[in-house]
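Example 9 (inverse folding). The structure is encoded as follows.
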């Protein structure tokens, strides 16, 4: 093996006259010439081509020379070799000739040396103290230093700006531990407008004994790949970070925060006021030469975090005519402004073919604008915010702390971020418009003001779902009934949005209509169930797989009578009311809920309870007790604990309950109706059994007049006497015994006549010569309201007169 190796390396001595004076045995193995053949011959006889300048025996041969030279083998063939010639001198300085070494071209050190020297990657070798031992030409171009300038110098001293950086520290660590390493270093070369990313590998160089004698490294500029990956990471973050909620301001803030600080130092998002309100944006904003464009700063995010504008606090801004932002909005094209022309150079420079920004700028970009430097900026990208052909506003990305100039790829990233956010903002705008419409519809259909009545002290709260969810179909109502009674109603329509709001309105109207008929709770829910079934059948799918829209609902209908203190309720799949007695007893109403509305074919059951005066009733929708962490029973028990019977203000108690029960981010509507019961003073109720004889009518009038005198209501005597006469006469003539007259003094004066007949009277027009038919017409004209309610054992005809000054309770 040694002989074969020697055959690829030879040594000879050439005298001052260019004649070979010494020859090695390896020369014979390499070229076939023996020492007898070679010694004494001109060295040029061994060459297969004319000698290059500086070769021994030629012009300028007094210095070192290395080069590839073809040599002549004794058999006539040609041997390519790397020839190195070094001059020899005597003690007196006289030239003694040259020593010449010959390495066959195929030998590994020769190819490796040239390959490393010509490698496009930057290669270097350092001693354990990080002194330069060797660098290739690419490394010299990167450092802007020649090999002679760096050899023997310490890395940290030659380039102090890189001292204590990850790169130099890692080199020292490899020298200390002997463990190879890889890293990516991002830095901005001195004099350059761009930051560059270098991929570097470092490894120890060991001697035969395994000791680390040097550290080698190679590196290449991977800026294009690195920054492309960083842009992809920002886009990936934007995919999960922008448009998470259906909120215009929230989405604008997400757009402003996502690219800071990885891409920009300051981002502002300006939107038209119409967009913030959920309306359609203006069709034609002012042109570049027209008027200023007024917007609102919906979001602003800075790397310093001292100028951030949180969602919910938009600030008016105006973009002057002819400004970059105005032109961008008018033309629909983005603009890049740079404080200075991008360039390269300086101590850490890049040679030809290593440009940091290979992408091509679109027409008109970049715009060199030295004026932005006055604002402390190195660059600014202005992008119009457009979605579905509509202009929503403008987004500005600015750089100030980071000195790197924007590139054409940065413009693409800014436009991608803006385009994604524009769709999310437009979706949020459209959702906001629909939600506002649904909420407006729902609020218009809900009870606007609690009616005046004395049976109950009532307070209510309704809170729609959070901004990330659609409006639901929760509703409640307080309906005064005949006989000083009051109906409390709470319901919930399945689904969300306009459909649920409209369906809720239809159900509420139906409940009020059925309540006017004075149906018992169980019968009212039966009629309401039939209505829901008919409404659902009207909503048929257009396509084969299109759902019908889930027209289901729940409803709780209750009636409280302050005369008897009776509380009657029936539930169609709705949570039962909670009852807190004056003694502190807390319990859900002991009743059995029926099926939800829209099932059909199943009965509803009414439950009647007698409540102590001052009892607290709590009616609510399931949005108040819904929770992912706890079951419904636990939440109802928690609601019972929160309800404080001793609270002096029901309004304050409503606020306490809503704050305690509802999470900050709720996904469903919540309605609460609180009522404290009152009992009507027995002295304000008078009744009398009427014998079914027309002769009893005068007695009924007398009874009425005496009672009105006792109540100090003589001013109502005339009308009340006529009303009682007509109603009692009709009951005796057309009704069935037993007949009963009852007078109730509440906020109005109520007159009731009951009998056992189920036949209901009705108004009719009496002709000129008719003897009857004018009684109910007279009642309707003289009173503020009248009606009929059916009971299990007959009916009751009632009418009510307003009292000018009702006596305080």
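The amino acid assigned to each position is listed next.
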């Amino acid at each position: 093996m040694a002989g074969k190796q020697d055959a690829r390396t030879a040594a000879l001595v050439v005298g001052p006259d260019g004649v070979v004076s010494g020859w090695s045995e390896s020369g014979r193995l390499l070229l076939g010439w023996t020492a007898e053949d070679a010694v004494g011959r001109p060295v040029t006889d061994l060459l297969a081509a004319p000698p290059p300048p500086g070769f021994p025996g030629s012009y300028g041969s007094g210095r070192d020379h290395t080069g590839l030279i073809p040599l002549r083998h004794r058999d006539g063939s040609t041997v390519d070799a790397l020839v190195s010639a070094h001059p020899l001198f005597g003690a007196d300085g006289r030239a003694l000739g040259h020593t010449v070494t010959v390495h066959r071209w195929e030998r590994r050190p020769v190819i490796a040396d040239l390959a490393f020297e010509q490698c496009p990657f930057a290669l270097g070798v350092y001693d354990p103290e990080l002194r330069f031992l060797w660098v290739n030409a690419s490394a010299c171009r990167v450092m802007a230093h020649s090999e002679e300038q760096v050899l023997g110098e310490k890395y940290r001293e030659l380039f102090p700006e890189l001292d204590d950086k990850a790169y130099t520290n890692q080199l020292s660590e490899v020298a200390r531990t002997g463990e190879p390493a890889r890293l990516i270093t991002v830095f901005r070369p001195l004099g350059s407008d761009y930051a560059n990313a270098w991929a570097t590998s470092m490894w120890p160089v060991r001697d035969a004994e395994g000791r680390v004698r040097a550290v080698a490294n190679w590196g290449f500029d991977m800026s294009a790949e690195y920054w492309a990956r960083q842009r992809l990471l920002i886009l990936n973050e934007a995919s999960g970070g922008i448009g998470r909620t259906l909120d215009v301001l929230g989405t604008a803030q997400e757009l402003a925060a996502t690219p800071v600080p990885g891409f920009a130092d300051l981002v502002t998002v300006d939107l038209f006021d119409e967009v913030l309100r959920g309306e359609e944006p203006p069709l034609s904003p002012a042109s570049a030469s027209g008027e200023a464009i007024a917007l609102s700063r919906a979001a602003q995010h800075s790397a310093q975090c001292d100028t951030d504008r949180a969602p919910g606090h938009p600030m008016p801004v105006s973009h002057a005519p002819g400004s970059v932002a105005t032109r961008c909005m008018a033309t629909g094209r983005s603009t890049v402004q740079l404080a200075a022309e991008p360039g390269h150079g300086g101590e850490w420079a890049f040679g030809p073919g290593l440009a940091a920004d290979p992408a091509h700028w679109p027409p008109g970009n970049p715009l060199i604008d030295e004026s932005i430097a006055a604002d402390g900026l190195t660059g600014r990208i202005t992008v119009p915010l457009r979605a579905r052909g509509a202009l929503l506003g403008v987004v500005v990305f600015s750089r100030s702390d980071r000195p790197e100039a924007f590139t054409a790829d940065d413009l693409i990233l800014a436009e991608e971020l803006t385009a994604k956010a524009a769709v999310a903002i437009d979706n949020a705008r459209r959702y906001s418009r629909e939600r506002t419409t649904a909420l407006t519809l729902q609020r218009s259909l809900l009870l606007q003001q609690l009616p005046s009545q004395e049976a109950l002290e009532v307070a209510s709260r309704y809170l729609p779902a959070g901004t990330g969810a659609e409006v639901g179909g929760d509703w409640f109502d307080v309906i005064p009934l005949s006989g000083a009674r009051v109906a409390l109603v709470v319901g919930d329509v399945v689904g969300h949005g306009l459909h649920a709001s409209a369906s809720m309105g239809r159900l509420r109207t139906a409940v009020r209509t059925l309540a006017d008929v004075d149906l018992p709770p169980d019968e009212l829910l039966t009629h309401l169930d039939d209505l829901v079934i008919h409404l659902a059948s009207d909503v048929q799918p257009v396509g084969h797989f299109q759902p019908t829209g889930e027209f289901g609902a729940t409803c709780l209908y209750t009636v409280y009578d302050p005369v008897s203190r009776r509380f009657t309720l029936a539930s169609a799949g709705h949570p039962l009311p909670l009852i807190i007695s004056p003694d502190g007893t807390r319990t859900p109403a002991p009743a059995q809920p029926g099926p939800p509305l829209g099932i059909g074919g199943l009965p509803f059951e009414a439950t009647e309870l007698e409540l102590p005066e001052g009892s607290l009733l709590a009616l609510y929708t399931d949005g108040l007790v819904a929770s992912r962490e706890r079951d419904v029973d636990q939440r109802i028990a928690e609601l019972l604990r929160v309800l404080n019977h001793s609270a002096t203000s029901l309004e304050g108690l409503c606020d306490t309950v809503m704050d305690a029960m509802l999470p900050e981010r709720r996904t469903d509507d919540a309605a609460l109706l609180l009522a404290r019961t009152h009992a009507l003073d027995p002295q304000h109720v008078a009744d009398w059994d009427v014998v079914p004889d027309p002769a009893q009518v005068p007695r009924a009038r007398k009874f009425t007049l005496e009672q009105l005198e006792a109540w100090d209501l003589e001013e109502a005597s005339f009308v009340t006497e006529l009303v009682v006469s007509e109603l009692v006469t009709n009951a005796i003539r057309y009704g069935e015994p037993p007949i009963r007259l009852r007078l109730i003094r509440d906020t109005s004066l109520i007159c009731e006549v009951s009998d056992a007949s189920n036949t209901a009277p009705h108004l009719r027009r009496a002709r000129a010569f008719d003897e009857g038919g004018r009684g109910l017409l007279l009642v309707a004209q003289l009173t503020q309201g009248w009606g009929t309610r059916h009971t299990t054992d007959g009916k009751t005809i009632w009418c009510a007169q307003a009292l000018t000054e009702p006596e305080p309770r």
